[in-house]
Sequence to fold (522 residues):
Amino acid sequence: MNRREFLGVAPLAAGAGTAEGAAGSRPNIVVVMADQLRAGITRMHDYPLDTMPALDRLAARGVSFDCAYTSCPVCAPARTSMLTGRWPSVHRVRQNSAADAAYFERDLFDVLKPLGYRTGLAGKNHSYLQPQKLAFWREYSHGGGWKPPGAPPEAAAFDRWLTLLNHAVAKEPTPFPAEVQLPHRIISDAIDFIGDGSKGPFALWISFPEPHNPYQVPKPYFDMFPPESVPPRRVGPEVLPRKGFKWELLRRLEDSVYPGYDEYWRRTKSNYLGMVRLIDDQLARLVRHLEARGLMESTIMLFVSDHGDFMTDYGLMRKGVELPECLVRIPMVWSGWGVRGGRQHHPAHVSLADVMPTLCEAAGAAIPRGVQGRSLWPLLQGGAYPQDEFRSVYAEVGFGGLHYDVSDEIDFETAKIRVPGAVTSFDELNSYTQSGYLRMVRMGAWKLIYDMMGRGQLYNLDADPYELNNLYGKPEAAAEQMRLLEELLAWSVRLEDNIPQAAYKPKWAPRNWYAPYRSRRG
Fold:
């Protein structure tokens, strides 16, 4: 028994450094997260509007994954997965109201603080984290946030206006300048925390509440992508009967609160894209600060989202139903220290849960027990990796129990949100739309969704990107169905929790790479 085993320290991941390594060799870490930003809407992905030029520049000199997925298309579960490297079924946060239920042994900040990292949050939390856990804490949400002493009165006025908007779509430009919008204030706080970088390595989570609703933006962003210029949607509310009861239910809920809302879907989409560009301009401001202080080359930067947005596809806003690509696929761009650039469309299937073990290895630390995500560090360095290990990715959603269906009495009033003096809004993550439990695996062009009743959905995303033609049970897709069912079963077994640990010691997979067995059918 060596000293680390005697002390109960988890074995090092293969290739990772030790926690006792030289502090000067450790990179700074900046994780930039946008809330509800869907993948594929930048020029890099052939989107016709130039929504995120700064992010595209980072991707050009870094690594961007085309098949990056959230662990769950809900805020608190997804954020807990990023911080702990665990999927919701084991960290136990399956809904936004259960953040305090998080179950894990050590999270990312628990790993980094003993290595001498200064830790901080600037922006939206919406996780189990508490202010006392980090050295720097400036929190924001969808109704405003932290204001320094002596802040201009218009900052507080904007926060009140944002609260009264109450998640609606603003049909006029926001009557406050960009400088009091939350992304600008959050980056100002981030710059305050980073300073000149002389106080030792830092680990900072920058978390924008945007482009999550309310969909609002000031000029010039309000006019940057006019409604008549936004790309036409390929699917609208006419397809909802093909998607099922819960999809139609969400449409009815949205229309009960905002009657006729889909008539101005172009304005909604225009506001969303304007918010995306506002975020990107603040990302560029952060990069300029790091470059001016000579910190860019010593900093690992990750840009990621917690989940996507319908962005008016299917005639829906926000999120809330099942596991469609527009909600589960996310942008993921790595750049900076140790990242070998020039890979804008990396083909590996990766997850938000992979962030934590990747940063552990980059910092020279062991991957803690209970972490299920895989370290992407060799992929980011341009090294060899087992492609079978990254041939698929898994996600899940649902509060549990049975699906609500047409036989149930639905009370929309329980899903409505009322703020005095504000427009009534709604919670799309309600008991009805999030009922039941679904698991998903994506492998290549194929995607399988399976629920607790044994009902399946199977889609060929190359031919059917909006998932309208369910091939589950169809003879022509039988081989692919069996292949993906096996893959989903392998993921389900693999993600059984290995904590708490008692007397007997498991054999740990280096970097959490299992290099799965490929059956004869594969």
Remarks:
- DSSP finds 14 helices and 15 strands in the chain.
- Confidence is low (pLDDT under 50) at residues 1-24.
- The longest strand covers residues 202-211.
- The CA atoms of residues 362 and 377 lie 7 Å apart.
